[in-house]
Amino acid sequence: MKVVRTERGWGGHFIAASMCRFRRNTLLECGKKRIVVSTVGCYYPPGADNSLPENPENASTIGYERYYETMAFEARFSEPYWEANVCKEISFESEWSLNECEQETDLKADQMHEAVVAELSKGLKGAIMTEIREGTIELQTKINGKIYALGIDLNTIPTEEKLVHELKWLTRALVGTLKKLKWFNGK
């Protein structure tokens, strides 16, 4: 079967995608199966100075230690388009995040997006098919004008003990980020 690829001009995931300078959204269709591959990055939240494209240091992360990310989802029909069903994430092996925001990072993000499209296109043709994951939770907070996000995929956590372990790790990661930002001020 042939995979039909459609490039679209809007972000496919991330609630603040409209504030990202970099957005890719690719719909892959093969028979009745549809997948949306979305890459966003170079995020400037409200109030950030984004007037100079050569000054990416004003960009904010879109998640823990990442300025760009690629995600894939099963598609659902939302009149008149097939959109990402963000409750049904699809896993893949390719690189999915970049922890840098320089002028040339968009080129790396394009390559990252294309690698995921190629991997999932191969899967749609029947060579491999990744499982669709549901139940990812994400915590977002705004500190000093920047939004930080941390997430856990609940489907990878088989026991209550493992969930406690993951939540402790998530808390340590959040505290480490806050310390780097000197948010505690000796508290």
Evaluate the radius of gyration.
18 Å
Structural class by sheet pairing and helices: alpha+beta
Strand content: 35-45%
Helix fraction by DSSP (H/I, runs of at least 4): 10-25%
- Runs with pLDDT <50, length 5+? 127-133
Silhouette: globular
Main sheet, how many strands, which sense, barrel? 7 strands, antiparallel
Number of domains: 1
State the separation between the terminal residues, measured CA to CA. Answer: 60 Å
- Note the run of SSEs as H and E: EEEEEEHEEEH
Helix count, per DSSP? Answer: 2
What's the total number of strands? 9
Can you give the mean pLDDT? 79
Overall description:
The chain has 187 residues and is α+β, with helices and mostly antiparallel strands. It has one domain (4-136). The chain has two helices and nine strands; from the N terminus they run ββββββαβββα. It has helices spanning 105-124, 160-180, and strands spanning 4-8, 20-30, 33-43, 68-78, 81-90, 97-98, 132-133, 136-143, 146-153. Strands 1, 2, 3, 4, 5, 6 and 7 form a seven-stranded antiparallel sheet that branches. The model is unreliable at 127-133 (pLDDT under 50).
